[in-house]
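Q: Structure for this?
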Amino acid sequence: DIQMTQAPSTLSASVGDRVTITCRASQSINIWLAWFQQKPGKAPKLLIQKASSLQRGVPSRFSGSGSGTEFTLTISSLQPDDFATYYCQQYSDDSRTFGQGTNVEIK
Amino acid sequence: EVQLVESGGGLVQPGGSLRLSCAASGLSFISHAMNWVRQAPGKGLEWVSSISGSGDYTYYADSVKGRFTISRDNSRNTLSLQMNSLRAEDTAVYYCAKADCDSGVCRLMDYWGQGTLVTVSS
């Protein structure tokens, strides 16, 4: 199975900060990578698909990049609503594995 | 608007069985593969199982293979997960999620339900 490794596990930041989360795949997944945002007690919400395609309605301060095995999620200016846990997920093969998550917390 | 509503969760003893359901609306149900994803308390997301739109193809995580069975009733727009031989490590919130297709790849999970909690404990 393809393993997905996210870094960091926890990120402390302030409103207005630029935030970057990385996700590494154990083998090439082309661009078949999604990013999800999850708030406590809620279902995950799809933010980005195909590594860099923003879902409709997702603020433009979110962006994704990468291909192959290295990917990043960037929030250009962190807003109060963005404090949450973020997961990457590969959908290149049937194992559909998730990263372990990155908790973005208030500094 | 796509809506997915899970039901059937609860408390079950180790070795017991439980059947989860997911009622779908706002979509052409038969046109979409569907998934179950779970999240243990305080932990990350784990894909559990998927089924094609026709129901002809099913896929399982190694952790549940042979114990869980995914199925669907396209006449009732309902997805199900039959869980047998349950273990404490199966305790989790179980989400159903719709799959979207792109360039023949139909594994992106674009809409999720709110989840149903399964607790396996004596």
